[in-house]
Design brief:
Distance between the termini: 74 Å
Radius of gyration: 31 Å
Shape: rod-shaped
Helix content: 10-25%
Number of helices: 3
Strand order of the largest sheet: 1-2-5
Number of strands: 5
Order of helices and strands: HHHEEEEE
């Protein structure tokens, strides 16, 4: 028996098992049940979940899951402690005559505040005081301005 004929025999057996005995199972649970089960030729089934799912979908026994809606899509991951760097060194028309441009440019860095409401910047520990709008700033993004 050739490999493609063996594949077709396995696919037919899987489809028949799903159609007759496990019709009310989810594909995941169906696959867990049939892996290792002896087929018609007494060999145990050793196929992956993806192969099983593809066979059932190609034969029209199951359908693909619909895409997630807008509200159920994965959200952006929480930022980890670190920094993002923003620099704006563009020469504006009103600065064209200014000779020492380096003294007025600054670097804006976004840091994530630690659990103790502090930001570490260039060897300094900056304490962020509470205000009436926000009691703590743990894990908040803080913009720090430094001289370039």
């Amino acid at each position: 028996m050739s490999a493609s004929a063996a594949d077709e025999a396995e696919a037919a057996w899987v489809a028949e098992m799903f159609r007759t005995r496990y019709f009310d199972f989810l594909i995941k649970h169906f696959h867990e049940q049939i892996v290792g089960m002896p087929m018609a030729n007494e060999k145990p089934l050793r196929r992956s979940y993806t192969w099983t799912k593809s066979v059932l979908q190609l034969r029209g026994l199951t359908t693909k899951a619909p895409r997630r809606g807008v509200l159920r899509r994965k959200s952006e991951q929480r930022p980890l402690p670190g920094k993002m760097l923003f620099q704006d060194g563009s020469a504006h028309g009103w600065l064209a005559d200014f000779e020492d441009l380096g003294n007025i440019l600054c670097i804006h860095e976004e840091w994530i505040a630690g659990q103790d409401n502090t930001v570490r910047y260039n060897g300094y520990v900056l304490q962020i005081p509470a205000n009436r709008d926000r009691y703590h700033f743990a894990r908040a993004t803080i913009r720090v301005a430094g001289i370039s």
